[in-house]
Amino acid sequence: MRNRLSAGLLLFAVGYGCSEPEPTGSATPEIDTDVIAFVNVNVVPMTTEQVFESYTVLIDEGRIRDIGPVAATTIPTGATRIDGTGRYLMPGLTETHGHLPSASVPAMVTENFLFLYIANGVTTVRGMQGNDSQIALREKIRTGELLGPQLVLGSPSMTGTDVTSTEQAEALVRSYDEAGYDLVKVHEGLAPEVYDAVAGTAFQLGMPFAGHVSDHVGLFRALDIGQSTIDHLDNYVEALVPEGQELEEPPGLRGAHELLERIDESRIDLLVQKTLDADGSVVPTMVLWESGIYATRPSEVLLEERPEIAYMPKETVERWVEAVDARIEEADPEAMMRLAALRRRILKALHDGGVRILLGTDSPQIFSVPGFSIHREMKLYTEVGMSPYDVLASGTKVAGDFLTGDFGRIELGQRADLLLLEANPLDNVANVSKRVGVMVNGEFITEEEIQKRLKEIAASYER
Ligand SMILES: [Zn+2]
């Protein structure tokens, strides 16, 4: 794996860090040309709200091998040095609800999508719309054959339309386990007994199951039974309707606004308590819900607001425009605004109550461009009242501890998925965009390289 890294790193070493003085550590430095050293950097470890000033962080084989004050940390002779003076080093971000490409997507477009994540400092993606081709993709990234974020793979979606019996549910979950998926994706419409069969089989196999909450199952049952994550705050609005006052037909994925006159907001405390009792986790995907699912603004506004759509294929953007405009046409904008505001109050209550929040945006769904959407989502969380530290934690430490336990913190032994920034992200989450470079899978990609590749991607979609 090392040889693949050397070309980029050599290039990089010319530009940075060569004038760095020798370390003052007492030990005689060993010789190790594989090591990469971030020298004299402000470390944002995400294990504490503290910043460790003037530290050296050593990376070897894609892992953090040493970390300590500059004076006390010996850099091996031959290591590649990256000057961190005045800069900040934080863990890479996680997209906890992404849709990875299927086999029908051209290889070039897939590579572009993966790069958009890296370009935005997203170094792990939990794929929530599985396809067998993604198993090989995960491996190619792991071995360094392809540049991309570490992938955690959800199975193909299990919906009520496709999965109608307990036997079928069991067989499918077993096949997803055998195929090598990391978790089972559950979706709208599953009947309670079918959902229970999914859950039972998944538990037997030690596989988490996560995603939507079927209206037929309901939030409380999903939490009680141990659904790993509740994505999109699905069914939280529905669960605000007191018992006995539900609609005759459940409102489905896009119909929660029909419940606005029936909900009792004082039940939010109950929802928070139930989620805590179940040790539940939520992946809010707020921006997509406000701009796409319960569209509150027409597509012209979104096109204007989001220059990053230049990095998406034209046909995709056309579909997004149609989806939003159709939604605006059929929905009552005032009801949509009320629903958006209610979702924000629910998220705030969940966060204030101590529920585990995992950063996720549902990219690339309607107007949420991979990677770029993470920054919009983080901004929204701060508007809801989360501190920059808590917002960053939702995409680093909390996500890492929740998914595999070996990334998301700057600590010995953790994956060296890292962002080098010009400004302190704890002052403002917008500073996460002020990149010097991104380290992923042992490779450091400079901002210059990122911008160059982004230009190429945009050019490839122009007609
Ligand atoms: Zn999704």
Task: Summarize the topology.
Elements: H1 2-15, E1 36-43, E2 52-60, E3 63-69, E4 80-83, E5 88-91, E6 93-98, H2 107-119, E7 122-127, H3 133-142, E8 150-153, H4 166-179, E9 184-186, H5 192-205, E10 209-211, H6 219-225, E11 230-231, H7 268-277, E12 281-283, H8 286-293, H9 299-305, H10 314-330, H11 333-352, E13 356-357, H12 372-384, H13 388-395, H14 397-403, E14 418-421, E15 435-440, E16 443-446, H15 447-461
Parallel strand pairs: 1-4, 1-5, 6-7, 7-8, 9-10, 11-12, 12-13
Antiparallel strand pairs: 1-2, 2-3, 5-14, 14-15, 15-16
Helix pairs in contact: 2-15, 4-5, 13-14
Zinc ion binds next to loops.
Residue fraction in strands? 15-25%
Spell out the CATH superfamily of the largest domain: Metal-dependent hydrolases
Q: What is the CATH level 1 assignment of the largest domain? A: Alpha Beta
Say how many strands there are.
16
Category by helix and strand content: alpha/beta
The biggest beta sheet reads: 8 strands, mixed
